[in-house]
Every structure is written in C-alpha cells, then in structure tokens.
Amino acid sequence: xxxxxxxxxxxxxxxxxxxxxxxxxLAVLSLTQLVVVLDGTIVNIALPQAQLELxxxxxxxxxxxxxYALAFGALLxxxxxxxxxxxxxxxxxxxxxxxxxxxxxxxxxxSGMELIIARGLQGAFAALLAPAALAxxxxxxxxxxxxxxxxxxxxxxxxxxxxxxxxxxxxxxEFADWRWCLLVNVFFVLAxxxxxxLFVTESKAPGENRYDWAGAVTVTLGLGALVYGFTLAEHxxxxxxxxxxxxxxxxxxxxxxxxxxxxxxxxxxxxxxxxRVRGGAxxxxxxxxxxxxxxxxxxxxxxQIVLGFSPLTAGVASLPMTVVIMFCVPFITKLLPVIxxxxxxxxxxxxxxxxxxxxxxxxxxxxxxxxxxxxLVILGVGMANLFVPVQNLALIxxxxxxxxxxxxxxxxxxxxxxxxxxxxxxALYSTAASAxxxxxxxxxLAAFTAGYSVVFASAAVAMLAGAVIAAxxxxxxxxxxxxxxxxxxxxHVG
Length: 494
Known about the structure:
By secondary structure, this protein is mostly helical. It has 19 helices and no strands.
C-alpha cells in the first residue's frame, strides 16, 4: 500500500548540510586570506624583470610594493567599518571583484605609473576583503573546538601566504612572464566569488551606525603624505618638498587624533591604542613590517641582480626564513605559557637583528651559502619569537565592541610600518649606492651591494629599537599578559 510522506513523517537528513556549508565557507575565506597575503610578496621576485620591461626608476620600483602596502594598511580600518555596517558578504564580494579587476589592470600595464596605480587599487580592495573575511569567520564559527580549529586553519594559511607568494612569483616569472604574478589572481578571484555565492551567509552589525568619513580621509591622506615624504628623501632630507610632505603628514595625523577624540563612532577609538601593552605591540608590529617588507624586497634584488639567480631559484632561496619560522612556532608556542610573552618580545628582535647584521655583510663576489643563508636562518628564529605572542598582545584587554578596530589596527601597523620602512630604506640605498658608484664607476655590482648592505643594517637597527620598545611597553606579570590562556595566536608571516 502506497503511503505519502508528510513533513512530520519524512526522514530526517543524516548529513548536517549547514554544518558542511560552514567548512566550505572556511575554505573560501582562507583562500581570500591567502590571496591578500600572497600579493604582498608575489611581485618581489618579478620586480627586476618588470623594471626592465617598463623602464621603472628605482623610486617607481619601490612604489610597486609600497602602493599595495600603503593602501591596504591605510584603508583597513575603514574597510572593517564598511563590512560591519554595509554587510560582510556584500563587502567581501565587492572586494573580490575589485581585486580581480585591479589585478587584470596591473597584468596588462604598459607603464610604471599604470602598474603602481593597479597595485594601489589591489591594496584598497584588499582592505575590504581582509576584514570582511575575518568578520565572516568570526560569525560563522562562534564558539568551542570548531572555532579554534577554524582560526588555526585560517592563521596557518596566512602564515604560509608570504612564502607561497615568493615561490609562485619565481615560477611564474621564469616559466611564463612577470605579468602572470598579477593575472594569476583571476583564478583565485573566480573561486572566491563562486564560493562566496554558494557558502557564505550575509551578516552585519546591529543598530544604527555612522561612518567616520572625516577620520578616514585625514588618516589616509596623512599616511600617504608621510610615506611620500620619506620617498622624496632619496633626493635629500633637507629638500623643501621632503620637509613639506613630512610636515603635512604629521599635521593630518594630528588632526585625525583630534577627530577620533570627538566623534561619537570613531574609526579608531583612541582607547584601543592608548593601552600601554597594546600600543607597544602595534609599534613592534610596525617594526616587524618594515624589516620584513623592506628586507625581502632588497633580498630579491641581491639574489637576482648580484648573485645571478633565476627568478625560480631566487624564490626558493628566499624560503629558508619562512621554513625556520614554521618549524620554530610549535616549540615557541609550548614555551610561551611557561615564560610569558615579554622575554620573547625582547629576545626575538635581538636575534632578528643579528640575522640582519649578518646579511649586511654581503659583497659583490660573495656567495649565498656563507653570506645569505645563515642570516635568513637566524632571522627566522628571531621572527618566530615575535609572531607567536605579538598578535595576542595586540588584542589584550580589548572590549568586544573594539575587537574589530584592534584587529584592523594590528594589521595596519604592519603594513604602514612596511610602507614607511621601505621608503626610508630606499632613500638610504640610493645614497649608499650612489656614493659607491662615484668611488668606482666600473663596478656596478659593488654599488648595488653597498646599497643593499645599508638596507639590511638599517633594518637591524630597527629591530634593536623593537627590543627597546618591548622592554619599555610590554610590562606586567606573565598571567596579566596572557589572558588568552594557552598560546593560540594565528601566525602571520610577512
């Protein structure tokens, strides 16, 4: 006898479709994080070829990296607010589309200015993507073991992104063309858009919210003027335009602070950065950004231009630092609850400085295994000691309503530090290289290594300053500095 199935008697599905959808969403969001981090380094290996083809000056070459980091860092806070207020999935999808379009624009660029503009647009849309992805992850996995697993996967992808970028950049530049370092993003974007449509659920912050446009404009213009001023310093620190842009940047950032202290819904609540430990963590992240972004760019130049490595070999030769970091992280994570974060935050920069000082000893006739590899290994050990605790310290004592701003500030500090650091390093490189070229015009490689050596030495000094910052700001009992319990920070490399 035939019996119809009513809703009450229909069999209950054995597979939790919603549960499976969450893990597919994690894959999509992790892919987004990979693209954002990867694009910070993928063009580094391609820069020598791009410079030759497009006729870039050394200043323009630097801006191919700086434009991405500066736009990304300066707009992250606004991007997080847009995601919360406008809708996180909507922001994610728009960010994906814009990032893909900017990548295509950069991939077909016919001049240095077009490439720089494209990289800036990539950074701007990445500033929408990154906070939207993190917010979506937060509301998709709300508690328990699954949340810890999701964040561990997300953090691991972020941690390997920089290394993948260097390696993929080398493969594409050597076997295809440097332009594919940008065009390859189209495949990631298509996967992200399809996955976003299928698996990501919309959410937004409750209540009536208002954008802090005055704060967004002043901080973006202020940081831009500051970085541009440092860029002009390669023509002279006492030049009127250099002083003018640096002064303008400082004034605009001062105006930003005044605005944030007065508006009802600030882009960056000042209480987030005025906390002693958090403020110290942000300063240290800026130092890390300057050393990592500036250092890896000039390392790529040395490997290819002076040592004559192919793009692929240069990409592989850049990996030991990241391998060492990933190897050390599990051990340092277990050690963290025993000794607390403060010793690591002081010792880490000191070890990293030793590695950078080692790299500063490069010569035109030196070799990779004695002059470069040991420095990368030592630098990796130092950075591992920083990456484990710094992310958690950047969020210590944060109220729930400030968590998004604090997280965005942590990432912004790294990107802005990298932008300013690279601008300063480029000015120092130009001065040292020009001085060496005047001494011996017949030895261009010696001029290059003289400039690179000054960059690595300057980055080492920055790391020493980071150790001092940690000693001054990261204070308190171990228990007070570890409210997060067992160390579980997501590791961000690069």
